[in-house]
Amino acid sequence: MSDVSADTTEQDEKSLLIVEDDDRFADTLATEFRDRGYTVAHVADIAGLKATDPSAFSYAVVDLRLRRDSGLDAITSIKERSPGTKVVVLTGYGSIATAVQATKNGATNYLTKPIDIDELEHTLITGGPDEETPIPDEFQSLDRHEREYIEYVLNECGGNISQAARRLGLHRQSLQRKLRKFTPR
Questions:
Q1: What b-and-e string marks burial along 133-161, b requiring 16 or more CB atoms within 10 Å of the CB?
Q2: What is the pLDDT of residues 79-136, one digit of tens each?
C-alpha cells in the first residue's frame, strides 16, 4: 500500500511520513497520528520513498527492516533530500551497531517495538524519550533480543525449525533447546 497524500513542498508542522512494509502496523500508526491532527503518508519501500517528497514532512518514522530494502538506506534518502525532517527508527530487532549506524545516517532516535504512541510522538517532537518514563529492563535484555530474532527467523521460515536453524547457523536440536528456554512453563 502506498498512501502518499501529502505532495506539497511546504512542510506542515504536524506532518508524518511512515516508511513501513507492514501495512497493518503502518495503518495503525497512521490512524493514531491522524487522530492527533497530523497529516500522514505511508510508503512501503525505497521505491515509494523516491516517489515522495520528504521535505513535505516534519517527521518520519522508518522501520529498520523493510522487505527488500534497509531502513538505513531510507534514512539516508530522507536526510539527503530533506535535512530538516526528524527521523525516528522503529525496529523489533534492535542492536547497538544498527542504532549507531542509524544515528550516523541522520536519525534522531532509535526505538524498539512494541512502542507506546505517546512515547513515539514525544520522541518525534523532542528527539528523545520522555525522561520521566524509565525504560523497562526487558527492553535492554540480550535474551529478549535473541528470542525476538529467533521468533522473526522462525516466522520467516513458516515455523520450519530445521530451515530456521540453518538460517541461524545452529543445529536443529540447539534451536529447539533455545525455544524451550523461551517458553514459559
A1: eeeeeeeeeeeebebbebeebbeebeeee
A2: 999 898 999 998 877 677 778 888 888 888 888 888 888 888 988 888 764 444 444 4
- Per-residue pLDDT band at 1 (split at 50, 70, 90): very low
Beta-strand pair 109-112/86-91: parallel
DSSP strand E in 26-71: where? 39-43, 57-63
Do the beta carbons of residue 85 and residue 55 sit within 8 Å? Answer: yes
Query: How much is the pTM?
Result: 0.64
CA–CA gap between residue 161 and residue 96 (Å, rounded): 27
Domain 141-182 maps to which CATH number in 1.10.10, 3.20.20, 1.10.150, 2.60.480?
1.10.10
Cell of 89: 527508527
Please name the fold of domain 12-126: Rossmann fold (3.40.50)
The domain locations on the chain are: 12-126, 141-182
What b-and-e string marks burial along 81-92, b requiring 16 or more CB atoms within 10 Å of the CB? ebeebbbbbbbb
